[in-house]
Fold each of these.
Amino acid sequence: MSFKGNLDEIVALNESGLLGAHTSWARVKLRSVVEIVNGFPFESRYFSAEKGVPLLRIRDVLRGGTETLYSGPIPDGFWVRPGELVVGMDGDFNCARWRGVPALLNQRVCKLVVDDEFVDPRYLHYVLGGYLRAINAHTSSVTVKHLSSRTIGDIPLPLAPLAEQKRIADKLEVLLARVDVCRERLDRVPLILKRFRQSVLAAATSGKLTREWREARGRKGGPEAWTACTLAELCVPSRVITYGVIKLGNDTPNGVPCLRTSNVRWLRIDIDGVKRIAPVLSAEFGRTVLQGGEVLVNVRGTLGGVAVVESTMRGWNVSREVAVVPIDASQVNAHFLAFWIGSDASQQRLAKLEKGVAYTGINIEDLRMLPVSLPPLDEQIELVRRVQELFKLADELEVRRETAASAVGSMVTKILAKAFRGELVPQNSNDGAASELLARVLNKCSAAATDRRKVPNAIRSKPTMSIGIDKDTIRAAISKLEVDSFSFDELWAVVSGDYDSVKDILFELLQEPNPVVCQAFDNSVRAMKLRRVQS
């Protein structure tokens, strides 16, 4: 769906705080200070990953690079250079300054060619994001959201004096660079905490974590004195390590909760999205009906998950991708065993046993034979206590990181909002008035409009039409042209209407199942032209 709202009303609401403007500034339609160049519908049969020139597609806007190459005919005017502003016109309406190598501009992406006589390109980049997000928020999402160049051109750009725009952009570059450094450091914290937790488990399973504890009790030796056994030897005699329900069937209201790999995470169970199965089906797999205290291990699909079953999950079941380890509590502490299986050493050992290509898995017999070094039960309990204590510290740090990351995100919004209110840098009387800059913009637009209408009359089959612009209007104009091959400007010359509106409608016609017009490379002029499709 395309945007159908009222931009002036959205700006007046200013829900994000990013659509403001200082009282001394003017506003101008974006199309008055930029040229909006829509991407070209390059034919996908020429796409490749091996040969051709880079092609900027909508998915590349934020990535800043492309893996798609194009080897077909290349029309003029569709190159994007590093630093140019590009906008994705489907989905989230992202905008970015292109960071990749020169590339061709594909359809559903446009670039903004800024008239730097009136607007600093950096200033425009900072301003534009807030308006595009506001448009996106007010665009229906029944189907894929679409952004037209007409809507982009209608954005009421806050026009500060050019010198003030430059000062704002300079200040934002400094402040946001500092914010980026802060964000990058915060982004590294989860990996650091992950490594910390694994280091804790390595210390626990190697006996280092309880060395002083053993010495205080006069116990000699460490892991070398622990009992060597296999996972299977730690199970209750009446149950074996096995996997669960093979085919879960449809979700059954009020049925038996059945844990899948998506529920069994690393040292925790996530009950969001738990599937419920028919009680009769669960009873058929009574061997894996949970009693509480078992250890679960993912053995197919998403591997690495291992967790202890809580007592509140008694009577639940598991899917075939999850193995149940029914431990003998007189020999082993369930949490210690989960820590052992979840440690890097055990995970690497299990990874070497994975089988399959498209759908990897661990053979149940291999899991049963997993080696375990088992300390005395009281030392297991002490190890679990110490690990959980250290993990609690890591959890607290993670919460603090999330709070800090949220604060950094809101800081960016606050900085930008302050900039666009005209409060980030001081006004300077030597900059000149924004109204004077606006007058120059309008004068230049008026002159350009006059020049643009000076087109040859050679291909006109009748005087310029003045009826409303829609698909039928364009179809009629195409059918009445005296030539089969023509340029866009030649078509536009016989249609009375906004340049961008005509272009948007034409691109829609080109994508119809049975188009009345197509594009073809004209060797005589070495350029792409439009060609009327004969019915």
Amino acid sequence: MAIFGSAVGVGVWYRKHQIEIGHRAFLAKDYTTAYAALSPFDGWRSPQAETDLGDLYVNGNGVNKDYSKAFQLFQEAAYVGYARGEANLGLLYTRGDGVPANQADAIHWFQLAADQGLPSAEWEIGLFYDTGNGVQQDYVQANIWYKKAADQGYADAETNLGGNYMGGHGVHQDYTKAFALLQKAADQGVSNAQYGLGTMYENGWGVPQDSAQAVSLFKEAAAQGNDNAEEEIGYMYYAGQGVPQDYVKASRYFKQAADQGNAEAEYNLGVDYLNAQGVTEDDPKAAALFMKSAEQNYASAEDALGQLYDNGKGVERSTVLSYMYFNLAVAQGNDGSKAERDQVAQNMTLGQIADAQAMSSEWTPGRPLPTTASYEDLAPDYILASSSDHSVYQNSRIWFSREFTISGKKYYAVFMVTKGGDYHAAAASISVVTFDMSQDLRQSLSGIYRQSTQANFAQLGSYGDVEPLKKPHASYTALDRLDAPEFDLGNRKYATLVHDSYEGMGEAEQGYEVFVFEPSQYGVGSWLNAGSIATGDDTTANCDGDQPSSLLKNSWRPGL
């Protein structure tokens, strides 16, 4: 029995000895030795060995990466109350590695480890409260947990607590305490702490303003790939602050940060491409960078996209998208975007404005942003862009665009009121566009109906008072016209676009007619045919007087 007892004791000693060898190798980052020493004890219920092995599997150090295996090992260690195992299990739940992401489970396991005084878990709990991720945001609670970890010398907690003292989040702003905490963390090589110290020197917060020292600290952080520091160095080269002005270096640093998804850097690099500063001018590339930044709800990028879509610079012109992006920027508190949005709205239909507002209200940060509007919303933009006489359209207000189908093909009718003297409406017209996407062409059929589709009005109300509201003032003579929407032109005059079919010289024609309601001095008034939009093989010259003989097509590409 004594011999057997000695053998058991030797076995226990050997197991502990090997696990300790593996742990020391793990701490020394000798992962091959660590795995060789620890792997024989997988399943031996040693929480330290299970946690070290799980860490190797998570990071693929000395073994192929395997999140599922890591989860199993951390779980075994956590179930016996081993703090590192609990914290690492919390990390997997946070990231969704090897298990569906679950913030509640992550907080549960981090809290168990933090209650045992594990500084990394205390810091994680602080992060949850700081960001409001999975719990109600509470800076005071965040700082309590940060301090617990910082008091143990945990550098990331020192960094975050220092940042909150610098910003006055959950504590009274105190630059002295902020500097001391950030310096401790920076001395341990934490890039965010180096960046924070650089910010203090750049702005003279609690220390003498020193741009050169700020650049030095930013470069230390940037050398570790800190995107905020890369963006800040880019700005300092751009502005010539603490370094000679150098747009090429500025763009280079902006790109390094933008490649990591830094929204401000994406915007700044987009500005460089737009203005040919340090890079070759490239409007589409600028638009793409603004889009990435805007998807993170960066207001300056949203405003920039509003301008690009308004001018068709680097993107296909769209007043709907322009309005939408300006609206997003306004929601972020960018006051200058409001005037830009309202200016764009002056040449939009109420339907376009409603669609733009819906698009902006339905979007949430992180989701892809719209890059095109509906054809019905695009039609008015193409009418304006395709005109050879831009002065006419600069004095026009577009009221509505409607989709309709003739012989299986979609058309878009655009109704406009042209401003006359003293802001009175001088004329109303219907134009039509169709889009042939198979050839990537936009075809404008505007201005082709001679005067038959122009209705002139001696309108008493002002140009700005013309509103396209449906008014059931008069019925049509045909049943198929009863459901046609009517649009108020002011002074009791209304326009509508209705389906029509008729016979001309034995040839059947299908199309649409434009009707205008004219008030009568002695009665209710009547609807007059102001012109027709027809399709079919009309080769005769004996059609009705208001019937055009053909639809003239002027092919054009966006931007021409």
Amino acid sequence: MRRSESQIQGTSDSCTLSKCSISQRGYNQDPYISCFVNKSPRRAPLINLGYFVRVRAIKDAVESFLEFIGGTSAQIISCGAGFDSNYFVLSGSKKLGPNLVYVEIDYPEVVQKKTDLINNSSTLNALVGTIVSPTSSSGIKGSNYKLIGCDMEKEDELLKCFIVYEIDFLVPTLFISECAITYMKVESSSKLIKWASKNFSNAAFATYEQITPTDGFGIIMINHFQKLNSPLQSIDKYPTLTSQKDRYLELGWSSCKTESIMDIYLQSVSKAEQIKMLSLEPFDEFEEWHSKCCHYSLSIATKGALVKWEPLCKIDEQIQSNPSFPCNWTIIKTDLRRFHHTSCQISRDEFLVIGGFGPHNNGGNARLPGICLVVIDSSQGASSLSQLPVEAPLGVTFSRVHHSCKVMANGKVIIFGGRTSPLNPLSDCLILSICRDDTSNIKCVRVEQLEFPSHVRPPPCWRFSSVIIRRASDEEALMVFGGRGSCSQTLGDLWLLNLKSFTWQKEEQFDGPVPRFGHSAAVWEGGEQVIVSGGLLENGCDYPLNEIWSWHYVSKKWRKFEFGDASSHVPLARYGHGSEVVTDGSGEDLLVMIGGVNGSSRQQPGIGIFNLHKLISVEYSLPLPTPEYPLMTFNHSCHISPDQNEVIILGGGGTCFSFGTSFNSHIIKINIKQLCKISQNLNSLPKEKS
């Protein structure tokens, strides 16, 4: 067996183990998958959810096909089936009629192993049905189940096998490729697609595979399969939803619809079931999970009588990305490797970075316990990273994620909330005093832990937004809004911490935004107003929000911005982003939204500019990362330089499904002036009437 074939079969074995994991954890009911493994590993929740949406997409397509054909004669042909148990699940649940033939094809070596496992299992044997010819080394030939050993790249051999196994070329036939033909050479997979269209009169071809290889997540995905010596052969030629659809139309199929798994999952799985799936295990990796779903698609091509079968007809692309303007960035090498951290700017070139997830000194990755200092030398295009000595009360920990840190007027830093694990949210409040020596170098950070009555304080939370707001009287307060209180609780509370008396007050809210998490907040009008953008709704069971709200510190009133009709550009929905308000050269106040995740398979958020007076916006796409530096603009922290000339992005990255964990290796700097040019051209439009 060729090494490439062996590596491809290795991906099948890994897939089977993952499907076994989701069955054991209750994501789906499959009592047969365990018959094909000799161990039952427990995968991480992120991987379990990723495989659940994969299994669910194929399951829904197959059951829709069975419903469409009724009890008439038909076939399902699974290409590269591996140790898939779909036939046994369908047969065991009595969903396969007597006139349905289920066919599986894979390399002869895989088929031999599967044949042995089936023959040695009374449970599986009972579901195979009548064997109309003796089981041979090349597979199983039953009346309703056929297992064929054949290299699908060899058309002549495939045709001979189909004749021997009495495959019917006239009855309605559904071909399934679940991450299978993508490992074939693109010429071979295209020949197979065309061959199926040419030889089967009434057919459909359902293909689940990877798309969008050029962004940071996509590069990590591509590199993963390259390292396994099982590269994705088709993705470069067919990288988008549109190109996937066009491929089938060009290869002889009458119709084709292609949708992202993100859209299919959110629109076809009920909210109740989504909530149930998210409650099976503690889970908080929404950015990575949604990114995974945006990088996979399901294409269903049809011809003949099956053209009327439209399983994806109710699925629409929800996140519309208008044409965006390009912008440039400058990247600076850094030793900072972390995400889910927080940071604050304590001088023009100095940034405190606190907590987060990254490489640990003892090996592996973990929540990081310390405070480090990042210094950027823009003139040299360089940066430095150092750990700072910390003097803290016993029991204080910085090993947390999704917390906040803000600089107060007196130069001290306040830290609030976050979590250790999703089962352990935090509500503590820490004050950091930065102590410098005679040469202005930081010699240590002193930590004070604030104490509050338990009944007058925010609940433990993370993924909230926080800003420091001010009145003209120099009254200062930390505003905390929304967030997650637990894996099943999304908050909509608004709390203020007076930074003189250090007392909390919960604000009454009327006609304000619904509970959310993963949103961002920025101060406006000298700190008297707060702009809240984006986020995810309760339980994260929907698309990111395309909303911008303001809250006034004096009037205590919320106001929702309505996007103007004067521009075809509207802000891309997003969450997990950062935001700041800047003033452009013409005196217009602009909300700058930086990075995040939007749920689109076409384009992830870059830099969004929203004119707070004219209610119009412009979206800028960031440069494509390189294979050497697969930068991702989520799970990061960001800042605007004091002169409002630059956006500065620190850290970022994520655990990219089963493809590995990646940390941004560069600081990103983006010149704001280039972002304001288009916005200034839009300023000729009339101002909003007050």
